[in-house]
Design goal:
Structural class: alpha/beta
Number of helices: 12
Helix content: 40-55%
Strand content: 5-15%
Strand order of the largest sheet: 1-2-3-4-6-5
Largest sheet: 6 strands, mixed
Radius of gyration: 21 Å
Length: 319
């Protein structure tokens, strides 16, 4: 049974605090504020902002965080705590699905003789990891292309750009000043990383949450969703750590290529073992939160990535 839970937890998308803050219907005002900060506009009517976040598209075990349609623009937003040069590839998959949905919803005919009018896409990544990067970085899908020189009159069929904004303390002050929720979110996550250097993750999250509530940083949000936010953050930080471990293992495999299959099998086994251990830890935390009454069973099952029956069996196993 534990193996099934581990597999499901690795396969299913987990909600993130970023997605909850900027991608939910009840907090559309945050999405509009971030849109205004990015575009230099000052819109106030959230009723015409449409959340178009993908519901059923998985790529690299992750869904996109937030996407919106507003003012003839298609905005795709991602939060990243680890540097990933392959974000444009993910953007290609997401944007293709978003355009497919847009064409279908608006009954457009891509085979007609008239040129269609489509929303302009923008792909933004908000980075708050502990590796230093510039305020503003542009990633391009073409940087991954093997063929760097197009033959004759041929041009690459597609280009995707991802704009990375560093939202760590001291970076992009104009953007952060224009969107208080983004600044508060970045401050909160920064506190967790700082405290996690000297205390366990669960304790670091609790201390950071208490400090932010006291300082008035995301105070209403954190006060009303304390247990749920803690559960989401445990999952987020575990996933980020797992990705870093996996990347390190891949490098080691490359460096020890002469050992071939033996080294590869051993290192991949270690990475798999760590991932399974992290999934079990998340399951135990959620069970504890449910038993203490701080989190509902349905929400706990959703965060873990299993159905309600699977979660009930997990509760029975851990009695």
């Amino acid at each position: 049974m534990e193996t099934n839970i581990t597999t499901a937890a690795n396969r299913q998308h987990k909600d993130t605090v970023f997605r909850d803050l900027f991608g939910s219907e009840e907090r559309k005002v945050n999405a509009l504020s971030l849109y205004n900060a990015l575009t230099g506009s000052s819109y106030t009517d959230t009723s015409v902002l449409e959340l178009t976040t993908l519901k059923d598209v998985l790529y690299m075990n992750v869904k996109n965080d937030v996407s919106i349609f507003f003012d003839s623009r298609m905005m795709l937003w991602e939060h990243q705590s680890t540097r990933n040069p392959n974000m444009p590839l993910r953007g290609l998959v997401y944007l293709a699905q978003l355009y497919q949905s847009y064409v279908h919803k608006n009954h457009l005919d891509p085979y007609g003789s008239s040129q269609l009018e489509l929303p302009t896409p923008y792909y933004c990544i908000f980075y708050n990891g502990d590796k230093e990067i510039e305020d503003y970085v542009v990633l391009r899908l073409s940087d991954s292309f093997k063929d760097k020189e197009s033959p004759r009159r041929l041009l690459p069929a597609v280009e995707i750009t991802a704009t990375v904004f560093n939202i760590n303390d001291g970076h992009n002050s104009e953007l952060m000043g224009a969107c208080q929720t983004l600044a508060d979110y970045a401050h909160f996550m920064g506190l967790i990383r700082r405290y996690n250097k000297s205390m366990p993750l669960a304790e670091a999250i609790d201390v950071a949450m208490r400090q932010c509530i006291k300082e008035g940083v995301l105070a209403d949000y954190l006060s009303s969703k304390r247990a749920e936010v803690a559960a989401m953050l445990i999952t987020e930080f575990d996933q980020a750590e797992y990705e870093e471990i996996l990347e390190l293992e891949k490098r080691r495999i490359a460096e020890k290529a002469e050992a071939k299959g033996e080294a590869k099998g051993r290192l991949e086994g270690e990475a798999k073992g760590r991932a399974e251990g992290e999934a079990k830890g998340r399951a135990s935390l959620l069970v504890e939160l449910v038993r203490s009454g701080e989190l509902g069973r349905g929400r706990a099952a959703e965060l873990l990535g299993v159905d309600s029956h699977e979660f009930e069996r997990l509760l029975e196993q851990q009695d």
